[in-house]
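=== Structural record ===
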Amino acid sequence: MRSLSLRLYGIATRLMQPLLRRKLRRRAVAEPGYAVAVEERFGHYPTTPGGTDWCWIHAVSLGEARAAAILIEELRRQAPGIRLLLTNGTATGREESAKQLRPGDVQVWQPWDTPAAVARFLDRFSPRIGVLMETEVWPEMTAACAERRIPLVLANARLNAKSLASAERFGWLARPAYSSLTAVWAQTEADSHRLVSLGAKVTGIFGNMKFDAAPDTRQLAAAANLRAKLPKPVIVFASSRDGEEQQLLEVLKRFGATAPVPPPQAAIKSIAKRVHDVQWMIVPRHPQRFDEVAALVEANGFAVARRSAAGEDQGDAEIWLGDSLGEMALYYGLAHVALLGGSFEPLGGQNLIEAAACGCPVVMGTSTFNFAEAADLSLVAGASLRVNDMAQAVKAALLLVADPARHDAMVQAALAFSSSNRGAAQRTAEALLAIAEPTEPGLQD
C-alpha cells in the first residue's frame, strides 16, 4: 500500500495540472516547441508506437540532453541494436535529443508526475530499464517503477549542497524516491555522499560524462579559419544569464568610455582605449533571451552584430551576439578567453568542460556550485582563473590576452584537463547494460 505522503503528493500534482497547461501556453509564446504534443505530458500518445524492451532515457533540459547524447553513442557502440525511448521536459532539451533518434526510436515528453499520467506512460512503453540523467528524480515515477519492478537508475548523478538542503526539507518525499532507485552512479565523491544521505544506492563514482564529448571538428576548423582573419582577439561571455550581461556592459563602459554614451541610433564608438582592442561576444544561455539581450546591448550604447544576421553589413559592431544553438564549439574556438556564465550571479555557474575541450581558458566568478568539482579541478590544472566580480573578470581576461606565453600555457592545460577526465560514458554504459540483462535482441549486440 502506498504511503499517505505519496497519496497526498498525487492529489497535489493532479490539482496542479491546469497551472501546468497555463505555464506551457505562456512559454510557447516565446518558444513554440512548448506547444507541440502537449497531451503527451499527460500520458496520451495517439500516434506513438508502444512495445516493450525500450531503454528509456530521460534528459530534462539542454545540458542533460547533451550528456545523454554521449551515453547514447556509447550504448550504441556496446549494444548496436538498442531501442531508445527518449523523454524531455524542456523545448531545448527535446530539440537536442531529437538529433539522437534513429529509425525505431521514439521521443515523447516527460509525463507529468501524477499517478494517472505515469501509469499511462508505463503501460504504453513498458521500458526494460529507465535512465534518469543527472538530477531528475520524481516521487510518483520512482514509486511506480519500483512497483512494476522496472529498474530505474540515476546516471551522471550530481547533487549540490543547495539541492540537498531543499530535498531534506521535503524528506518525506525525497527519501523514498531516492531509495527506490535501483542504482545511482555519481559524478564525484561529494555528490556520492550527499546522495547517500538521502538514501540513494550509490554503486559507482564514474565521473562526468560531459568530459567524453568531442567538440565538433567542423566548427573548430571554421573557427580557426575565421580567427586567423580577425583583426582583434575575441573574449566571449559564454552561457550568460539574466543580470550578468548588464554587469559586463557596465564594466566595459566604465573601463572604456571617455565621454557620455551616445543614443543607440548614432554611430557608436563607445568602447575606448582600455578595451577597444578586443572583440567582445555575448552568448546567452537561453535562446528565448536572444532578442532581450540584443536590445540590452543597444540600450547601453553599443553596436551589436548578431550571428543570425551573418552576411549582412553591420559595420564595426562592438559587441557580437551569439544567437544560435549548437555552435558553442565555434564560439569557444573563436575565443582567446571565455567568461563563465552563471558564475557572476548566485546561479551556480554553467559547465566549463566544453570550453576546456576546445582549448579555451576560462575566467569564472565565485558561484560555481552546480559544477563545483569540475571548477576546482580546472583551477588546480591551470585551465581557469577565479575572480570576485565582473570588473576583475574583464581585467583578468584582458591581461591574459596580452600575455601570449601565459595564454598558450592555459590552452595546453585546458586540453590536458579535458583528456585526463574521460571514461565515464563507457563505465556507465557497461553498468547500465549489466542491470538490463536483456533477453531480447533489442538490448544486446
Q: What stands out?
A: Residues 257-273 have pLDDT under 50 and may be disordered.
